[in-house]
């Protein structure tokens, strides 16, 4: 009786302490969210900054985007299937909006998680279609009700089981575990005092069990063999694969490969080694027999993830693939993992590169690898190509954003100067870097800071990135908290926008993407930042200034760096420039300067503006942008297929 009384007292005390601490933490979080909301109300300019944050960023929704007009023809059957699911579930969609906001829900973009929810519901819809037939309107309403129940269930299950925890949730869990551990010790001590013999037997069994478990599990990493299958492979047989799960940390560490394959697309990874030893990851959504290809290159603090982050019907990479293109996703050097041919390279040496190396080392290596792969595959699948004199049996276009646009222009111009083929047929540049003199006060301050203190800081700060796994994990989890607490997320979004001059891009949403995860993340070298400051200071789009006439003479053959704007006349392919009217990072006036210089140099160039901020070109679902980009790609006619060998032989005999 005494032992049972003690157990009851301890159980009540434990639950009371848990409830008190849980509610105390919740009240603290509510206070922080409330103070954030109060601060948000008094911050100037917040309306413009937050006006585009309607989707999965601060107000998540399960609803999918409307089917884009440009995908009406040539869309893959998989995308058609996904679209039909999203339309069918429109009336039963679940979101966090209030009832009075239902009328304008269709303007909100979809999230990657919402699209995964619709994929997970595929089997559910198949089961519904096999239900017994009903008559008249009862059949329609019955199926609709069943469909609605299953859709809600799948979405709720996905929402509760397939999401990472934030810092607040981890804190809740840690406090609960700590309280349980303390009361467990007290409980065992009470049992030991009241019943020593029974306590000793339990302690012995517990120690034996713990030792056995320790031998089986080492650390937090668990490797499991699972049966996997990837669409598009030559051999679709299931294979055994070791998958590593970081269970206790519960962070989102998905890669571009994970996103592509989860959405049902084929995938291929190609490792490219540059002339100076950097190992780059060139990713591919392959159409091996396609005679038209597209190369997509990201900007600063970004990776190939940006081109697929909007899911099936909102991402440029999937859009190009569905239009019949062989899609290649480039990744610049500059990952925290520091992939290099020299495994012992120091951090200081690894980060010693500027935009020069992006344009003269990274892009040439990746495009030459694309040429090698495409040429060998097409000649293997189409033997008649062996008789062609053309060195390039395919057409390659490039879509580049921000820093990627500056690097691709540098690549084309330097290849023309070196009289080497650049292998490109068209450039589509989304808010390209290069000219920066017209910018905000914040960027001007940063410019003078780098120019004044650059030589002093360079040896001590080789690059800008989050150096440790712990702080990268913390950022990943904080991004989830910014989603869970909209006032805090809105405040951080507004403050980050102030830092970049008022640009209303979805900065909080970008932080939540898995390429900023605990295992790796893209960084920016100090010299790349200094190179951008040099461009802004001189008002010219030119190569890196090494700081002295002798150093520049050794690299360029002249005391001044090569002015790329003066050599725009060497560009011999069409260029499409796109600017964002809300872009405060690279203002439309700077993109127009590219246009004017190219126009004066007789380049075949076009210019267009959209009402976008800087990151909207890649991280937001923009149907009109995808429509425009696809229309520009279609202006490049694919290389015509050669006649078959027998037909060619007949023509040769006839003397034609």
TrEMBL record:
Domain of life: Eukaryota
An annotated GO BP: lipid metabolic process
Keyword Transmembrane listed: yes
Biased composition (Low complexity): 111-122
Entry's transmembrane regions: 449-467
InterPro entries: AB_hydrolase_fold (IPR029058), AB_hydrolase_lipase (IPR006693)
The entry's keywords: Membrane, Transmembrane, Transmembrane helix
Positions of the UniProt region annotated as Disordered: 94-122
Domain Partial AB-hydrolase lipase stretches: 257-311
Pfam family, one: Abhydro_lipase
Gene3D superfamilies membership: alpha/beta hydrolase (3.40.50.1820)
Protein name per Swiss-Prot or TrEMBL: Partial AB-hydrolase lipase domain-containing protein
């Amino acid at each position: 009786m005494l032992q049972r009384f003690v157990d009851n007292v301890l159980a009540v005390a434990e639950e009371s302490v848990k409830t008190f601490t849980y509610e105390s933490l919740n009240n603290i979080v509510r206070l922080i969210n409330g103070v954030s909301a109060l601060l948000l109300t008094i911050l100037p300019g917040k309306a413009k900054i937050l006006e585009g944050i309607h989707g999965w960023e601060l107000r998540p929704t399960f609803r999918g985007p409307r089917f884009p007009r440009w995908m009406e023809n040539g869309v893959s059957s998989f995308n058609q299937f996904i679209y039909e699911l999203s339309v069918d579930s429109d009336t039963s969609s679940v979101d966090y909006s209030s009832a009075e906001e239902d009328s304008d829900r269709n303007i909100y973009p979809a999230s990657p998680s919402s699209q995964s929810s619709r994929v997970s519901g595929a089997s559910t819809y198949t089961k519904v279609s096999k239900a017994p037939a009903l008559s008249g309107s009862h059949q329609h309403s019955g199926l609709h009700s069943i469909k609605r129940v299953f859709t809600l269930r799948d979405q709720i299950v996905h929402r509760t089981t397939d999401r990472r925890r934030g810092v607040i949730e981890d804190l809740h869990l840690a406090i609960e575990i700590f309280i349980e551990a303390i009361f467990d010790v007290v409980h065992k001590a009470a049992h030991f005092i009241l019943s020593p013999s029974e306590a000793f037997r339990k302690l012995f069994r517990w120690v034996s069990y713990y030792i056995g478990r320790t031998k089986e599990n080492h650390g937090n990493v668990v490797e499991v063999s699972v049966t996997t299958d990837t669409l598009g492979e030559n051999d679709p047989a299931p294979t055994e694969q070791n998958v590593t799960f970081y269970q206790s940390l519960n962070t989102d560490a998905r890669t571009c490969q994970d996103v592509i394959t989860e959405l049902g697309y084929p995938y291929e990874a190609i490792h490219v080694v540059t002339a100076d030893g950097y190992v780059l990851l060139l990713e591919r959504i392959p159409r091996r027999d396609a005679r038209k290809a597209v190369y997509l290159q990201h900007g600063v603090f970004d990776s190939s993830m940006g081109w697929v982050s909007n899911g099936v019907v909102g991402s440029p990479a999937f859009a190009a693939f569905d239009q019949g293109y062989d899609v290649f996703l480039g990744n610049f050097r500059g990952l925290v993992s520091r992939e290099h041919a020299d495994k012992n390279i120091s951090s200081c040496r690894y980060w010693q590169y500027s935009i020069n190396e992006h344009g003269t080392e990274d892009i040439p290596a990746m495009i030459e690898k694309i040429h090698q792969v495409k040429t060998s595959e097409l000649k293997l699948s189409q033997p008649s190509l062996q008789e062609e004199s053309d060195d390039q049996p395919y057409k390659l276009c490039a879509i580049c954003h921000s820093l990627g646009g500056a690097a691709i222009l540098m690549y084309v111009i330097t290849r023309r100067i070196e009289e080497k083929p650049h292998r490109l047929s068209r450039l589509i540049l989304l808010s390209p870097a290069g000219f920066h003199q017209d910018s905000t006060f914040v960027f001007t301050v940063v410019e003078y800071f780098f120019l004044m203190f650059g030589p002093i800081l360079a040896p001590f700060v080789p690059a800008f990135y989050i150096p440790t796994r712990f702080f990268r994990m913390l950022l990943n989890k904080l991004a989830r908290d910014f989603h869970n607490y909209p006032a805090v997320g809105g405040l951080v979004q507004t403050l980050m926008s102030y830092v970049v001059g008022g640009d209303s891009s979805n900065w909080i949403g970008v932080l939540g993407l898995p390429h900023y995860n605990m295992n790796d993340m893209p960084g920016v070298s100090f010299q790349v930042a200094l190179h951008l400051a040099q461009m802004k200071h001189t008002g010219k789009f030119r190569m890196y200034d090494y700081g002295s006439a002798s150093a520049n003479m050794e690299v360029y053959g002249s005391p001044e760096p090569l002015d790329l704007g003066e050599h725009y006349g060497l560009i011999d392919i069409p260029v499409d420039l796109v600017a964002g009217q809300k872009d405060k990072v690279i203002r439309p006036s700077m993109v127009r300067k590219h246009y004017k210089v190219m126009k004066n140099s007789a380049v075949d160039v076009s210019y267009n503006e959209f009402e976008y901020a800087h990151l909207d070109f890649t991280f937001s679902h923009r149907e009109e942008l995808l429509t425009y980009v696809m229309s520009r790609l279609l202006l490049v006619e694919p290389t015509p297929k050669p006649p078959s060998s027998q037909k060619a032989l007949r023509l040769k005999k006839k003397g034609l």
